[in-house]
């Protein structure tokens, strides 16, 4: 068995300026890792011929497998295919099976005539192996130069994923004799990265050379990930499970879950297991907590809905927050979020509720209530708890931190009730 590395090149000016977020390379990296292939490098380049050429040269020196996405469309800024033709010393030819596929798409699916521009999608370099794209007009292409394989795929995510799943991944085991890669991940809250490192110092130092520990801090929480590489899958799983068990025991007081899932899904599982329901009353987050909860399939089993009470009039009319409370204590106060909890429980008739009110910035703060001050409450029909938080970042990060802390406070409340 051998360690096999891959490099990923994503192409497009829109990626460089942040107009489009590059999710393709992250997904490709995850799929290759499952297949036992490690990632050497991920690089994004613009629609510039010299830059793409240079990236091909540099990445092929680092890894025997280079995956490329983007630049295969029918417009003038899509230059990848013609560049690859020149790079590998080929000439363009019409690939008849692809042409038939493109014609079928236009006649049966798109319901419009095939243009000459779209017909050119069926042209490929004669030095490549064509990889069928069942979902789009631009086929994937496989090239080989020396000991390096280059795979070019469209930048449209669903098309790239189809080619990877149906054409590329099935071939990897015949190309490379890879080892096995195993990951174990846990999530902690309420402790910083450096303190966590001190706590598990002895465990980390005792890890064998083929097992690595990574710290992944994000929004006040820290993930710990063990990664192991080896030839014997069963032995590797047994070994990493042992070391992971030591980690779980060491951080038990701060452990959220010993799995690689997001916090909102942890809360969702707790609710579903208990047959309980949840609603949210959101002011400063504008529905973001509800968005996180409903971004996962099956959330309708436990999440009933939300009231975005951004204006005080909604807090009063819908959530029955008293005018006197708003006048004397203000919208950002313990009293207000407690009344929001009781109001939303009456409106939605759920088992649990979350309420948040705060000042996200950049404006709106005062000496008494600065930007980043947030009140979070969670409760049921018999009890409500409220906590004050102070965040110090930009608006979006303050919103994210509010949502994370609200969900974690709810998680603790549910467990306390069990």
Automatic annotation (TrEMBL):
Residues 7-175 form the MoaB/Mog domain. CDD domains: cinA. Pfam families: CinA, CinA_KH, MoCF_biosynth. InterPro entries: CinA (IPR050101), CinA-like_C (IPR036653), CinA_C (IPR008136), CinA_KH (IPR041424), Competence-induced_CinA (IPR008135), MoaB/Mog-like_dom_sf (IPR036425), MoaB/Mog_dom (IPR001453). PANTHER family: NICOTINAMIDE-NUCLEOTIDE AMIDOHYDROLASE PNCC, NMN AMIDOHYDROLASE-LIKE PROTEIN YFAY. Belongs to the CinA family. This is CinA-like protein. It comes from Hydrobacter penzbergensis. The lineage of its organism: Bacteria, Pseudomonadati, Bacteroidota, Chitinophagia, Chitinophagales.
């Amino acid at each position: 068995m051998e360690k096999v590395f891959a490099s990923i090149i994503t192409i497009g000016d829109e990626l460089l300026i942040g107009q489009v977020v590059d999710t393709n390379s992250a997904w490709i990296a995850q799929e290759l890792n499952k297949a036992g292939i490690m990632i050497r490098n991920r690089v994004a380049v613009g629609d510039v011929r010299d830059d793409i050429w240079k990236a091909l040269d540099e990445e092929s020196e680092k890894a025997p497998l280079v995956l490329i996405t983007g630049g295969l469309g029918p417009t003038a800024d899509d230059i990848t295919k013609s560049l690859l033709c020149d790079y590998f010393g080929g000439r363009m030819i019409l690939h008849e099976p692809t042409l038939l596929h493109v014609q079928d798409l236009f006649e049966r699916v798109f319901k419009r005539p095939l243009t000459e521009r779209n017909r050119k999608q069926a042209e490929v370099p004669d030095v490549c192996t064509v990889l069928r794209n069942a979902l789009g007009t631009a086929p994937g292409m496989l090239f080989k130069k020396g000991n390096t394989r280059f795979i070019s795929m469209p930048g449209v995510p669903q098309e790239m994923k189809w080619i990877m799943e149906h054409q590329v991944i099935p071939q990897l085991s015949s190309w490379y004799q890879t080892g096995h890669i195993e990951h174990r991940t846990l999530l902690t809250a309420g402790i910083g990265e450096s303190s966590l490192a001190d706590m598990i110092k002895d465990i980390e130092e005792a890890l064998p050379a083929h097992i690595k520990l990574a710290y992944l801090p994000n929004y006040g929480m820290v993930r710990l990930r063990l990664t192991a590489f080896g030839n014997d899958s069963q032995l590797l799983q047994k070994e990493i499970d042992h070391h992971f068990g030591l980690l779980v025991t060491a951080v038990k007081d701060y452990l959220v879950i010993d799995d690689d899932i997001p916090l909102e899904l942890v809360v969702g599982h707790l609710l579903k297991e208990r047959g309980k329901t949840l609603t949210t009353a959101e002011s400063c987050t504008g529905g973001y907590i509800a968005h996180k909860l409903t971004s996962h399939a099956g959330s309708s089993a436990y999440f009933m809905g939300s009231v975005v009470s951004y204006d005080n009039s909604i807090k009063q009319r819908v959530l029955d927050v008293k005018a006197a409370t708003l006048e004397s204590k203000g919208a950002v106060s313990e009293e207000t979020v407690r009344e929001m909890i009781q109001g939303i429980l009456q409106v939605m008739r759920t088992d649990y509720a979350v309420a948040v009110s705060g000042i996200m910035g950049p404006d709106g703060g005062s000496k008494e209530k600065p930007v980043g001050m947030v009140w979070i409450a969670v409760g049921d029909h018999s009890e409500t708890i409220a906590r004050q938080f102070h965040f110090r970042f930009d608006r979006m990060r303050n919103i994210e931190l509010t949502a994370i802390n609200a969900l974690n406070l709810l998680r603790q409340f549910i467990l306390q009730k069990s």
